[in-house]
Amino acid sequence: MRIALTRDPAQTGPLEAGLRAVGLQVRFLPVTEQRLPEDTTELNTALGRLSRGDFSWVLFTSANTVRALVKLGWDGTLPAQTRVGVVGPGTARVLRTHTGITDPWMPQAESSAAGMIQEFPEPSPGQDGGLLLPQSAQARSELREGLSDTGWQVTRVSAYETSSLVVGGVLVAGDPQRRLLPQPAGEDLLDLDQLAADLRRDRLSHVDPTVLLVTSSSAADGLADLGLPERVRLLAIGRPTAKTLARRGIPASGVLSEPSADAVMAALGR
Predict the structure, then answer these.
(1) Does the chain have fewer CB atoms within 10 Å around its N or its C terminus?
(2) Average pLDDT score over residue span 17-44
(3) Equal CATH topology for 2-31+165-267 and 35-162
């Protein structure tokens, strides 16, 4: 059985490794692209302030926030008094790979904005409460507001934006100048035309040749705009993604509570 994920091959991690370990063929169908903002003035200004020591903390809410700062030239160098936090292990891994920073703060109970708010320390009396929060342009205000409520002076900047690669019902090339990830190799991608042919060939076998793992709500919207061959089985990571699929008329056959190979196999009944 093949399984395709609606994200970029460069985002491969433990999930894909686990799926390959149980014998699944892994392919990718990226329908969105993460890009630097068209105007990076605000982000460059924040990086300058970060290097001057204007912030006590910098918090990374995703691996893409790390990639965005690195694409603009940040190499991980920080003033001695500035600490680093991340939302979870995946972001920590990308931070280590790109900057060499090995021991960031992260929440222990839940890798989410809510987990960060719950566990992040309050500013000490007399401490400079400046905190840099680079995020997606589409990020909700929950984390910024939660940190502000505990006394931090939060500077939130848009580090990147997620844009659809589906235009007029077809996949298009992205923007190589602003793209955060390297261009994927063709052999890693799911060929939709071949998939449709496989489904036609196997229409009487009652076998699903490919399962599509939908990784985000933005990817769910992209799939709906793209259109899919009949009989493609969809699995959604998280309830928000599942709700978007249902709203767009392509409901998932299963919802994963976590992005793991065990969760995928359980959803597949294996």
Answers:
(1) C
(2) 93
(3) yes
User: Which CATH class, in words, describes the domain spanning 2-31+165-267?
Assistant: alpha beta
For the chain, the structural domain boundaries read: 2-31+165-267, 35-162
The CATH T-level fold of domain 35-162 is: Rossmann fold (3.40.50)
Average pLDDT (50-69) is 96
Query: Tokens for 46?
Result: 């924040």
The amino acid present at 4, given as its one-letter code, is: A
Give me the count of residues in the chain: 270
Q: Which sign, positive or negative, has the C-alpha torsion 89, 241, 27, 160?
A: negative
Longest distance between any two alpha carbons in the chain, whole Å: 72
Task: Indicate if the pLDDT at residue 204 is higher than 70.
Answer: no
> In one letter, which amino acid is 255?
V
- Which of 81-90, 99-108, 205-214 shows the lowest per-residue confidence on average (mean pLDDT)? 205-214
Where do we find the tokens 């924040």? 46
Q: Which tokens in the block code for residue 258?
A: 């976590």
Q: Are strands 57-60 and 166-167 parallel, antiparallel or unpaired?
A: unpaired
Task: Give the three-class secondary structure for 134.
Answer: strand
d(CA 84, CA 108): 15
Residue with tokens 């990020």: 139
Q: Which residue in the block uniquely carries the two structure tokens 């939908």?
A: 214
